[in-house]
Amino acid sequence: MKRKLSPKFWLALTIFSLIGQIAWVVENMYLNVFMYKMFSASAGDISLMVAASAVAATLTTVFMGALSDKVGKRKLFMCMGYILWGVSILSFALLKKDLIAAVIPQTLSAATVGVSLTIVLDCLMTFFGSTANDAAFNAWLTDSTDPSNRGAAEGINAMMPLVAILAVFGGFMAFDLDKEGSWTAVFFIIGGVVLLVGVLGFFLIKEPKIAPVKEGYFKTVFYGFLPSTVKSNASLYLSLCAFVLFNISIQIFMPYLILYYEVSLKMTDYVLIMAPAIILASVVTALWGRVYDKKGFVFSSWISLLWLMAGYILLIFFKGTVLVFIGSLLMMCGYLAGMAVFGARIRALTPEGKSGMLQGVRIFAQVLLPGVIGPFIGKTVLKNAKTVINNDGTSSFVPNEGIFIAALVAAAVLALFLLLITVKRKEKKDA
Questions:
Q1: Residue 73: φ, ψ to 5°
Q2: Is pLDDT of 431 > 70?
């Protein structure tokens, strides 16, 4: 029997998910643009930042997720995490060339120091963001839903990255991102909103009824990585392996996507072109969680993957506005629908009372491995990419369609893995 979730739950889910994803969009899609435009960052710099952030996110989620289980609280970690997350985003406004040049020795380059400080501050921001969102929010969502309503809730949660992209794209239209002052305004706005949501959460979030874990803290930390846990939850860990491959495919191109549109395709109006694709993909994603509830994992995951691969193929072979729009729409539908499907599947297979402990394993599959491997593949693909000379005499790389070719290969490996899992499951049932 389906359990109805309260309007207050849906409001809390929508606000915390949306604002959290807006903050992640700024980090995942625009901090590289910030470094590229303000400090002439290379593909290697971007790859290093993504990898360092992925490591920070994983370690944070493992230790803070276990801590939230140990104390039996989600609300405090969510709300205080969002408040400190907002403060850390505000601090990016201090990264200005003239300010950096004024405090560093003349023997050092302000651009080089700027890149290094951006990476360090990104890791700090990731610590607070992963505590609040990856660890506490995701555990709260798992604890607050059940198999009868989890797909619908995950559909809303999974559509938020696209809604966030739309909001950020639309909001950034008001700013000239070649100007330092625009970035200061962006960091103040995003940081202020995230901080405000954290305060609002104290009045909005309902603490789920979970008992504090009695085991020792470090036993809780390492629970998800124990061989005995893997053995007793084989389906969960097979799904996590598939999730790794899915996210590697995404992370090969995602750090360079905005630069590809703007620098390679010279789509100065890419926001207006992408907005309809994002809106349509958001609608599809919101409904796709319900498809998962009715049709199950196999059907919904395969359709999502086919959308993703079709989008890659169009983006590889075509540069015209219409076909780039269609390719981006299919890619985004596959990406977010896939996130909804894998998210619901992983939550459904998570043992009751262990959601905080297993958030670290989930983030290992969603962020760490993909965040290290994906951008490295992307950087390797772009090693001999063309370069352009900037107005200040520095040079910058030009992303090309090679990132989508590599992403397609990773998606094909995922398709083979899913096929093997399906065949093995069928053989086991027949036996």
A1: -130, 140
A2: no
